[in-house]
Fold:
Amino acid sequence: MRVFIVHAHHEPTSFNHAMTSEAVAVLTGAGHEVMVSDLYAMGFDPVSDRRNFVTVTDSEKLNQQSEEAYASAHQGYAPDLQAEMDKLAWCDILIFQFPIWWLGFPAILKGWVDRVFAVGRAYGGGRWFDSGVFAGKRAMCSMTVGGPAPVYTDSGVYGSIGSILHPIHRGIFGFTGFTVIEPFVVYDPKRLGDEERLACLARYSERLLVLDSAPTIENPNTADYEGFVLKSVQDKHRGLD
Ligand SMILES: Cc1cc2nc3c(=O)[nH]c(=O)nc-3n(C[C@H](O)[C@H](O)[C@H](O)COP(=O)(O)O)c2cc1C
Structure:
């Protein structure tokens, strides 16, 4: 298995860092190939604009998706993006490793997605969900949260982890064809004692060793998506929208 970890934490002593180190050790120990993009260590630039491209199709107006389509057809991506796109194409399993920030994921990781998941490389041409570019690959969020588990339930103050991760699970992974593995969540790691910390990393190891068979989250299929689009067009024609 080829595993690509996109690591989004700035502190080497963090629990997130311990999780990525554990993943590299466990997966390579089991004979898998692993690549890590440590976004802060790389100084990854999360700003998405003309810096994404070495080609230009419209110099008057920046339409990111049009420029992406053109760059995809003409090898026109900036080297930092091309390197990340190559890792995405290479992997069988993608892991996002991050702390929850403002009930979302850190901006550096969002910027990585904004730039790397480009038209022609991650989606486009009617390829989405089960017929998406990355169909056959799996993806998982491995995350830490500052709060305790009860606040991350349907009746808790923040709502469920599933609802918070929906934009990633559905909008990023699912949309581009990944089969989405149930997330691995560590609650309030700063309060863990040494033994609890080790136990938690051991639980993560167990998950890492079954990434190819771990339970997954359902996503729509292409027919569902096209059915919705078709229906909305038909409703518009009938004046129902
Ligand atoms: C900018 C920022 C925003 C945060 N937002 C949240 C949040 O919305 N919910 C939460 O439970 N914790 C939040 N936290 C706490 C972190 O998620 C927590 O410290 C982290 O998951 C602990 O893992 P670490 O030791 O690897 O940093 C936030 C922390 C920062 C720095």
Observations:
- Residues 222-237 form the longest helix (16 residues).
- The chain has eight helices and seven strands.
- The helical segments are 15-29, 39-42, 64-73, 79-90, 107-116, 161-174, 194-208, 222-237.
- The longest strand covers residues 138-145.
